[in-house]
Amino acid sequence: xxxxxxxxxxxxxxxxxxxxxxxxxxxxxxxxxxxxxxxxxxxxxxxxxxxxxxxxxxxxxxxxxxxxxxxxxxxxxxxxxxxxxxxxxxxxxxxxxxxxxxxxxxxxxxxxxxxxxxxxxxxxxxxxxxxxxxxxxxxxxxxxxxxxxxxxxxxxxxxxxxxxxxxxxxxxxxxxxxxxxxxxx
Length: 185
Hints:
Blueprint: E1 3-11, H1 14-21, E2 30-32, E3 39-49, H2 50-60, E4 68-73, E5 75-78, E6 87-91, H3 97-112, E7 125-131, H4 136-145, E8 150-156, E9 158-167, E10 170-180
């Protein structure tokens, strides 16, 4: 049976992507996310069978949340500081209550579509780059230099379903469908 690797995300406006890409100065051991791939993942679905994808699309179309403004601020790394960083990211500040409402309604819709979801804590962010172990000192310096960095806030008016294909050069994402935010049925 065929499957597609899927995720639900917020697509960043081009202006925000451009500002975020400007932080990607060359650092040995760090590979930066291509600007067109920058997004906020709301829910990674993994490999979804072709016969389940129709139910996913139908259920996602029922999600209702009013549009909202989202800040883009707070550079950090995963994992926590006691281990070498592997992911460089920027958060969404303290977020917006509607962001968490959107995540909950997405989860409800996806469970209703028959998907099994992981129960990890939702930590909304944009992955800016990935680092090797030997880049720890350079990454610490980069974090220090950019400690006050923020990008312009943006209005969230939709969420998107993407497919993702893994390649040696990195993942490539393809938009499947955009779902406008609205409180109206």
